[in-house]
């Protein structure tokens, strides 16, 4: 029995967020959740451009309704709250160099305000371009200057087992 336990323990991996990443997505990070409740429909997917200056979609659009509460996807600090190209935008800095952005979101949170996952951060406004429903939340994610798919924060891929380290097991071989 000890041999079986040793073999199983030798091959199990402690699951980390990096193990669960979907290809091309940001690694899921524990402590993040959807910014809209109930879980929204993704009406436009992430489409990272080949180069920073080329066309693409640097986030996802989530279907919502005007006036709906927008929630902090994770713990962090308000890094930006203002108007960009005529639309209200809120950005939150998280550990690990991540920044989530929410648009169009009317918010009264000041810069530097600490937020926790699930905390209301503002109200969704209508008027997002190419939105097929009454209001869409454009939810973006960056690490530094690199745009990432924010769905990687909330979606988990299949669990895969892999060895912790290469080692000889007693009685094996």
Give the helix/strand layout.
Layout: H1 2-11, E1 42-44, E2 60-64, E3 69-71, E4 76-84, E5 87-94, E6 98-103, E7 105-106, E8 114-115, E9 120-124, E10 135-143, E11 146-148
Antiparallel strand pairs: 1-2, 2-10, 3-9, 4-5, 4-8, 5-6, 6-10, 7-9, 10-11
In brief, what are we looking at here?
This protein has 173 residues and is mainly β. It has one helix spanning 2-11; strands at 42-44, 60-64, 69-71, 76-84, 87-94, 98-103, 105-106, 114-115, 120-124, 135-143, 146-148.
Structural category is: mainly beta
The quaternary organization reads as: single chain
Biggest sheet character: 8 strands, antiparallel
Uncertain stretches of 5 or more adjacent residues: 1-28
CATH topology: Glucose Permease (Domain IIA)
Count of all domains: 1
Taken from the alpha-carbon principal axes, the silhouette is globular
Please name the CATH architecture.
Answer: Distorted Sandwich
Q: Give me the count of strands.
A: 11
Q: Briefly, what CATH class?
A: Mainly Beta
Distance between the termini: 17 Å
Helix content: under 10%
Tally of DSSP helical segments: 1
CATH superfamily: Glucose Permease (Domain IIA)
Helices and strands, in order, run as: HEEEEEEEEEEE
The radius of gyration is 20 Å
Mean pLDDT rating: 78
Share in β-strands: 25-35%
